[in-house]
Write a structure and sequence with these properties.
Blueprint (H helix, E strand, L loop, with lengths): L5 H14 L4 H5 L17 H18 L22 E3 L8 E3 L7 E3 L7
This protein binds zinc ion.
Zinc ion binds next to loops.
Length: 116
């Protein structure tokens, strides 16, 4: 069984970071002991691997907000919501999406966040 290419897994997450003024480079500086090794994305299905990576990157961002210049909850939610968007998928390797915890109909596919 082959795994998805790392570049395929990282691209949508990096895109959503950049949409919100962050980047993987910024996040890496604060990852500390969290190792982004192959196990982190060792899911045979691309959607599941992207969800796993997005989950870990979001945790790293939220844990280090004070240390990130201009850091805001990531991904930014609609309007002036103070919370980050939540992450979920329809399961079975389906592609993951971000959604507003207060209004779940407000959602974006991971890799297509509009920024803010
Ligand atoms: Zn919201």
């Amino acid at each position: 069984m082959s795994l998805p290419e790392p570049a395929e897994v990282f691209a949508p997450v990096d895109r959503d970071l950049r949409a919100c003024g962050l980047s993987l480079d910024v996040v890496y500086a604060f990852l500390g002991t969290l190792e982004l090794d192959s196990e982190l994305v060792a899911e045979p299905q691309l959607g599941a691997a992207v969800e796993s990576l997005a989950f870990h990157i979001q945790a790293a961002v939220l844990e280090n907000l004070q240390g990130i210049r201009g850091g805001r909850p990531w991904p930014v939610c609609q309007g002036q919501h103070p919370h980050p968007m939540s992450l979920d998928s329809d399961g079975q390797g389906g592609w993951p999406y971000w959604y507003c915890p207060k209004n779940p109909s407000y959602r974006f596919t991971v890799g297509e966040h509009p920024g803010g």
